[in-house]
Amino acid sequence: MKEAAQQFDAIVQERRSVRIYDQESPFDSDAVQRSLERAALAPNSSNMQLWEFYRVQDPEKMRRIAQYCMGQKAATTARELVLIVVRRDLWKQRSRFMLQAYEAYYAERPEIAHRLKRFRSYYGRLMPMYYFQDWLGLWGRIRQLIVFFASFRRPVVWQVRRQDLRVVCHKSAALAAQTFMLSMTAEGYATCPMEGFDSQKVKRFLGLPRGSEINMIISCGPPTPEGIYNERIRVPNDSIIFKL
Asked: Is 3.40.109.10 the CATH classification of the domain at 1-233?
């Protein structure tokens, strides 16, 4: 095993969901910033990066959000809270950004500029067709019909409905969240991802954009021994890992 793999294995083994944080130990808030910048490098669907990360450091705001997290100790003892937020509604801006980035990239590389045609088609035509939604959901049904008939000729992506796109965006956000938590472990701190919270109250309290959805809230801080409630329990590998 390579040294880098050994180091990564140590980080993965060390990462645990810690529910009680040390209030006295020093806490480097810059570690959160560094970890979020690493999270921004996480893989995501079509590189659309339909996410935002919100750091909550103000004590009063943290107290209120802890209430909306059902008073979980992971929230009430946290030194900082991080919200992983899905922004599916930003698909137009992010698609334009990606297309402009590729335009600039290939403008400096005329010898391979022919590749730009594919990206223009992808972000200029395919992404709008994939992400556009109307209030009645009619376009989603049309997409389903297009996919259905296309499937007779070639493999297709079936996940084209509004609810499918929500899942796609939340999966990408979850990849960023895991990257953030592993990074915080490498920085010497603990985290706990929380799904048990009143998303509507948190969203209204923080004034998050109307089209946003909270993927999860992650607490972080210096760990305490009592913050790990039990030994790690996992289903046996031979019950979940298969060779075909």
From this structure: yes
